[in-house]
Write a structure and sequence with these properties.
Distance between the termini: 50 Å
Radius of gyration: 29 Å
Strand content: 15-25%
Number of helices: 18
Helix content: 25-40%
Shape: elongated
Number of domains: 3
Strand order of the largest sheet: 12-11-15-10-16-17-9-18-19-20
CATH architecture of the largest domain: 3-Layer(aba) Sandwich
Structural class: alpha/beta
CATH superfamily of the largest domain: P-loop containing nucleotide triphosphate hydrolases
CATH topology of the largest domain: Rossmann fold
Length: about 575
């Protein structure tokens, strides 16, 4: 037996702390080091093995109290040896994951979940054992039987004996149909959540098959994701090794197109409104009034996404509906309204600067609507709203989203947009993707990618846990995708600092949850009740690059490490 399979301790049951079907204890040999999140195996009844996750380690001694130890050291002297040598041991607490019969896995189909017997030898689990403990072996068996790749590399588990074990996600619980969606939370530091999301997307594309999957990514911070098609030049040997260990190629994204917003200077400079230098190839998108309202055959995202104020009596909603119907149906009184200035300064809403009554909506409410919309599209806008969009210079974002194809990655930059503009862009994307699949005929579905992955950072701003005054109607689209996305083929990968700030229906519908370092007050929120109390304390001291991964086929969340993305970091600022 090699060193990694040596016995590191033996199970221990006492009258006060008995072993059970859910957990067991074992004492460690004096020279052994075990840490929380290690996965161990214990010999069990009938030649089976029981696997478990170490959740805590304590040192126990025969001292009846701390005062006994104090008195034993000559009443608190730090310079003398204790007068009474204490007998002690390190004892680990283990949460049971699975039971397995290595000689005949089908002999006990339900497993043996009798308590682990006292004095049973305990070892570190090897890779095969970790896979059994987490249920990954069932995934591999499905692949062999159906010749269908379902295992998506998700990272490695580092065991305290120095071994690194590859772990996988089940495609059926990431992309559907069994489950879908991934949520990543934590205050781990610069780009940790984004890095894992981008690593996971790359892993999905390389293993499951990129031809049937389209990816839409929102860039919300600086120019972080505007060079994902450029290779990194500072990758270290250990990073290459980790990529190769997972069976993946460390490479940037292929077939990427960038959609960047029109800015106030774009008309003269030709440059988009983005941080740093723009990518080598890009398209600029802008919003005219027609783009927002749309046409009868191709509705736009709607003015409702721009009105982020309380409307308890739906007065503004009624006015917005009247505007949409009037312009789309080309009704006579709306026939001269074709630009933002027409809508905000002329009839039927305004006459010589005075608000008018429109279809039963009082002038005061019309005036309020005009003031709000003028602030968004005129006074405080970043430049993305234009009077007329020149089709040769700027594109309609929705039309571009409808052109997505399998194997293509589309990055939409919203980093320099205002909050209202971001909500409009994201709402437009979500609306188009949702409608593409929800309303497609059988023939149209054949032309669409089988799956669309949508990556959204700062999800709490668009799907907040509590309905706030600034909430926009985008929430309803996000809730629909979270609830129905797995059946439609639309997968949401989202990230935020605090999971508790995201709408519980969105979090609840995310089959896979990833958590980085978090503070104790956040971990006390109901969103984290799926994590055992014993593990929550360890989440406050995770290192950068370490994450807690919860997946439906795993019996307990596990701590993983993952390789950093192989594309250039933080945009062109690190181009050298």
């Amino acid at each position: 037996m090699d060193g990694s399979r040596r016995i590191i301790g033996k199970a221990s049951a006492t009258d006060r702390e008995p072993n059970s079907a859910e957990k067991f204890f074992f004492w460690l040999a004096p020279e052994e080091i075990v840490n929380p999140f290690d996965i161990v195996e214990a010999d069990h009844i009938g030649g089976t093995r029981t696997f478990g996750l170490v959740t805590n380690i304590e040192q126990v001694t025969d001292a009846p109290s701390h005062l006994s130890n104090y008195i034993s050291s000559d009443f608190g002297s730090t310079r003398v040896l204790p007068q009474t040598p204490r007998q002690g041991a390190n004892v680990a607490e283990v949460s049971v994951l699975a039971n397995y019969d290595p000689s005949d896995p089908k002999r006990y189909p339900m497993g043996i979940y009798m308590p682990v017997q006292s004095d049973s030898p305990v070892r570190f689990a090897d890779e095969g054992g970790v896979h059994v403990a987490l249920g990954i072996d069932k995934m591999m068996e499905y692949e062999r039987q159906h010749r269908d790749r379902v295992a998506i590399p998700a990272g490695v588990v580092r065991i305290s004996n120095g071994s690194r074990v590859r772990v996988y996600l089940d495609k059926r619980y990431v992309l559907g149909p069994e489950g879908a969606h991934v949520n990543i939370a934590g205050i781990s530091g610069l780009a940790t959540k984004t890095s894992y999301a981008m690593f996971l997307i790359q892993s999905i594309l390389q293993t499951v098959g990129s031809k049937d999957i389209a990816v839409v990514i929102l860039n919300v911070k600086q120019n972080d994701l505007l060079v994902i098609d450029k290779p990194r030049h500072d990758m270290k040997a250990e990073e290459y090794e980790l990529w190769e260990l997972l069976g993946l190629r460390p490479q940037p994204f292929d077939n990427v197109r960038y959609l960047l917003p029109w800015g106030k200077e774009t008309q003269t400079t030709g440059l988009p409104n983005c941080f740093g230098e723009p990518p080598d190839q890009f398209q600029v998108y802008a919003y005219s009034l027609e783009d927002v309202i749309g046409t009868r055959t191709s509705p736009g995202p709607g003015l409702g996404l721009l009105i982020r104020v309380p409307d308890p009596w739906d007065t503004l909603g009624a006015l917005i509906g009247e505007i949409h119907q009037g312009i789309m149906n080309q009704e006579p009184k709306w026939s001269k309204v074709s630009t933002w200035s027409d809508l905000l300064s002329g009839p039927p809403l305004m006459d010589k600067g005075v608000p008018q009554e429109v279809s039963g909506v009082k002038p005061a409410s019309v005036g309020r609507f005009v003031r709000i919309l003028r602030r968004v599209v005129k006074n405080r806008q970043s430049g993305v709203f234009v009077e007329q969009r020149a089709t040769r210079r700027a594109v309609n974002l929705g039309e571009e989203i409808r052109q997505i194809r399998g194997g293509q990655v589309t990055v939409v930059d919203v980093a320099r947009l205002t909050e209202e503009e971001r909500a409009l862009a994201l709402g437009h994307i979500v609306q188009e993707v949702y409608n593409m699949y929800a309303e497609a005929t059988v023939d149209e579905l054949g032309d669409l990618p089988k799956k669309v992955i949508l990556f959204v950072d700062e999800l709490n701003k668009y799907a907040p846990s509590r309905r706030t005054e600034g909430e926009s109607s985008i929430l309803e689209y996000v809730l629909d995708i979270a609830a129905r996305g797995r059946s439609l083929g639309v997968v949401l990968i989202s990230a935020e600092q605090f999971m508790s700030e995201v709408h519980p229906q969105v979090v609840g519908n995310c089959a896979t949850k990833v958590i980085g370092r978090s503070d104790s007050s956040e971990l006390s929120e109901p969103a984290y009740r799926h994590i055992a109390q014993a593990l929550k304390a360890h989440l406050t001291r995770l290192n950068k690059g370490e994450l807690l991964l919860s997946h439906p086929i795993y019996r307990q969340p596990i701590k993983i490490e993952f390789p950093q993305p192989a594309y250039r970091g933080i945009g062109h600022e690190r181009a050298g």
